[in-house]
Amino acid sequence: PLIGKTAIVTGSNSGIGLGIARSFAAAGLDVILNSYTDDDADHALAAEIAAETGAAVRYIQADLSDGDQARGLVEKAGACDILVNNAGIQHVASIDEFPTAKWDAIIAINLNSAFHTTAAALPMMRKAGWGRIINIASAHGLTASPYKSAYVAAKHGIVGMTKVVALETAEEPITANAICPGYVMTPLVEAQIPDTMEKYGVDRETAIRDVMLTRQPSKAFATTEQLGGTALFLCSDHAAQITGTTISVDGGWTAL
Ligand code: NAD
């Protein structure tokens, strides 16, 4: 049932978005990759996934800190049966020292962009008579940590918006849900391991187990493949009555 459907995955030239895009292409979906850059490498990545999977994969540049560009991404795609709002950034500072520009950028990219893409995509989904909206929130959409005020505010915000979109589409064959990952192994996280080892003077295993994954009871990172599988499940017919909720992929973090 997914063959021939088009999925837009925002912020998908690396990390979780890329993992979801790869899973979608492997399942036969047409996929739109996106980020704010417009490098040869971005377009080559789309061509590589297309060659690997036989799916139609395109890269569309859009800086999602800008609402018009977020709406433009959906319009340029021309179709949107599945929308994955994944693009996100982080900044860590106490609230009294939090730079206003960082606060504004995090709210714009992690929250406002999903408002704009959803607003642009819903009419297309209604016309097609089917749709899936999947917002990549975080364990920080359900709980908090110090020094992450903008990120936690944006992630709680997107969980709230997900519920409203679900209610506004409740009687239609459209669902809206949020996936809440704990720590996921991405290139960014991998790059933090050597620094953490050095800072705490510990080996790789200790750095991961006792420093990075203190709040993740499983003591294991989730993988981008697992996030891709969760997103695909939400697209399946089995998930047609799952709407307005969150699915945690966090090794037990939010059970603590
Ligand atoms: P990442 O940095 O690898 O990916 C972020 C993506 O967003 C990249 O493709 C980046 O180019 C894109 N992006 C950033 N600013 C953009 C902009 N202005 N316009 C368009 N695209 C932009 O990080 P990731 O870990 O894969 O994170 C993806 C999502 O998952 C984020 O929303 C993040 O908050 C969330 N998340 C990540 C983790 C984790 O442990 N990695 C945990 C919970 C939630």
Automatic annotation (TrEMBL):
| GO BP annotations, alphabetical order | monocarboxylic acid metabolic process
> One Pfam family for this entry, by name?
adh_short_C2
Q: Name the source's superkingdom.
A: Bacteria
Q: Which Gene3D superfamilies match?
A: NAD(P)-binding Rossmann-like Domain (3.40.50.720)
Task: Drop me one GO molecular function for this one.
Answer: 3-hydroxybutyrate dehydrogenase activity
> Which NCBIfam families does the record associate with it?
PHB_DH, PRK12429.1
Q: Which PANTHER family match?
A: 3-OXOACYL-(ACYL-CARRIER-PROTEIN) REDUCTASE (PTHR42879), 3-OXOACYL-[ACYL-CARRIER-PROTEIN] REDUCTASE FABG (PTHR42879:SF2)
- Return the similarity comment: Belongs to the short-chain dehydrogenases/reductases (SDR) family.
Q: What is this protein called?
A: 3-hydroxybutyrate dehydrogenase
What is the scientific name of the source organism? Jannaschia seohaensis
